[in-house]
Specification:
By secondary structure, the chain is an all-alpha fold. Helix content is 60%, strand content 0%. It contains seven helices and no strands. The radius of gyration is 20 Å and the shape is elongated.
């Protein structure tokens, strides 16, 4: 019994100390999204959807929930954000080539249309990110239009 108490106390101590440390937060400047918005011109509704369902994991600006203060949850969230940004980072949009932008928009509409994005693990706690079919249709239509615009620009550049 004495060994069990010592083990529990050691675990408690490790958990308490772990709360002091955590991953670096993804809290960049919201203005970093302005070039993406200006270039792709989403409607007000699509912009709102992107803010609710996409930007937390796919930009340098994350709205963290209260439970991000709990280790190891904060590491799990950080891993999701890091992976999301590696796929597409709207805060870094200006650095992407025209070809990459066109390809990313193809991926955007496919992932949203197939309901792979936003992730279920995200929508469980961000209910406003759980998209209705109408919202999905609007995002897909916008993304297809933007992709077509990029394709047109690429064709113009090749002439």
């Amino acid at each position: 019994m004495k060994l069990l108490k010592k083990a529990l106390l050691a675990i408690l101590l490790v958990v308490a100390v772990a709360q002091i440390f955590g991953p670096r937060l993804n809290q960049g400047d919201p203005a970093s999204l302005e070039p993406f918005i200006a270039e792709t011109k989403p409607s007000e509704e699509v912009h709102k959807i992107m803010k609710q369902a996409c930007f937390d994991c796919h930009s340098n600006v994350t709205r963290y929930p209260w439970y991000n203060n709990i280790t190891p949850v904060n590491y799990w969230i950080n891993d999701h954000v890091k992976h999301g940004k590696s796929e597409v980072n709207f805060s870094e949009w200006s650095s992407y080539s025209l070809k990459k932008k066109e390809h990313k928009f193809e991926e955007i509409w496919e992932e949203v249309e197939e309901k792979h994005m936003p992730l279920n693990s995200y929508t469980w706690v961000h209910r406003d990110a759980d998209l209705s079919q109408e919202q999905i249709d609007k995002v897909v239509a916008w993304a297809k239009k933007v992709q077509a615009d990029y394709k047109s620009q690429m064709a113009q550049a090749q002439k």
